Amino acid sequence: MSLSPVPPTDTRALFRPVSSALVTLLRGLPPDDWDRPTIAGAWAVRDVAAHLTDLACRRLSFHRDRMLPRPPSRPIASERDFVDFINGLNAEWVNASRRLSPRVLTEVLALASVDLADWFEALPLDAPALFGVSWAGEQTSEGWFDVGREFVELWHHQEQIRLAVGASSLGDSRYLRAVLEIAVRGLPHAFRDVQAPAGQTLVFDVSGDSGATWTLLREAEGWTLHAGSPEVAATCVRLPEGAAWRLLFNALGEADAQAAMRIDGKAELARPLLRARAVIV
């Protein structure tokens, strides 16, 4: 097998250019564009921008400034409870931010984004994580993965805004490549209930300038993720990069995902990919 460990993905230096591009975009939007619907459910462009402002302010408050997060109003006894808690926090901020003008919202985001870029660029790659990455099934995570999770939020929500207003995607392939490298780390969790003989493999091959190839390997303890591909795999799933990020970030319906996938081998082994997500849903 030509498989190798998946190395850490360092996204610390990517926050500044990606957030700067978002602020530039928002400053140039006409008023009507702020109310355009997005692929982020019921959220319009202004709501997605508000959510990103919330994420930046939260991260600075809890991580840089060491402010303790407010405890949940009720115990979290299940994964569903946690999802509901996070969705409630998000909705609370978005609803309150509808009282802010686009200019005010953009300026708050601009200030918070610069501070966040400063913080992440100064943070050691092996610094302790603030939160575990729940969509990867982790209670505790490595620091670079926690930071990377924050970056994929910034990138994919900005992409939602760009799609909504007809703006072109960010051109640098490094950004989407980093997003995919972080997102695929949730695949072992997505396959956690899939039974298969030890040694069975599924190859996930993403084409395009930002693409790469990863392999899920069934071991005694469960599925593990590796870079590269074996000489022979039970299943190989191929997706273009545009469909891959939409699938992993809950922006591609099951029928469209099936249409975009090219599957060789055991088709039933590929089905969990249709439900794999790198976001809390």
What keyword list fits this structure?
alpha+beta, Nonspecific Lipid-transfer Protein, Chain A, 2 domains, globular, six-stranded mixed β-sheet, Four Helix Bundle (Hemerythrin (Met), subunit A), 281 residues
Provide structural commentary.
A six-stranded mixed β-sheet has the order 1-4-3-2-5-6. It folds into two domains: 164 residues, dinb family like domain (Four Helix Bundle (Hemerythrin (Met), subunit A)), CATH 1.20.120; 89 residues, Nonspecific Lipid-transfer Protein, Chain A (2-Layer Sandwich), CATH 3.30.1050. The model has no long low-confidence stretch (mean pLDDT 95). 45% of the residues lie in helices and 12% in strands. It has 281 residues and is α+β, with helices and mostly antiparallel strands. The chain starts with a strand and ends in a 16-residue tail after the last strand. The protein contains nine helices and six strands. The longest helix is centred in the middle third of the chain and has 23 residues.
- Going by CATH, what is the homologous superfamily of the largest domain? dinb family like domain
Structural class by SSE content: alpha+beta
The total tally of domains equals 2
Sheet with the most strands, sense and barrel status: 6 strands, mixed
Q: Can you write the helix and strand succession as a string?
A: EHHHHHHHEEEEHHE
- Catalogue the unreliable spans: none
The CATH topology of the largest domain corresponds to Four Helix Bundle (Hemerythrin (Met), subunit A)
Quaternary state reads single chain
Number of strands: 6
State the end-to-end distance.
35 Å
Number of helices: 9
Cα radius of gyration in angstroms:
19 Å
Instruction: Kindly estimate the percentage of residues that lie in beta strands according to DSSP.
Output: 5-15%
Judging by the overall fold, what is the CATH architecture of the largest domain? Answer: Up-down Bundle
Give me the side-by-side strand order of the main sheet.
1-4-3-2-5-6
Q: Write down the overall mean pLDDT.
A: 95
Overall 3D shape: globular
Helix content: 40-55%
CATH class descriptor name of the largest domain: Mainly Alpha
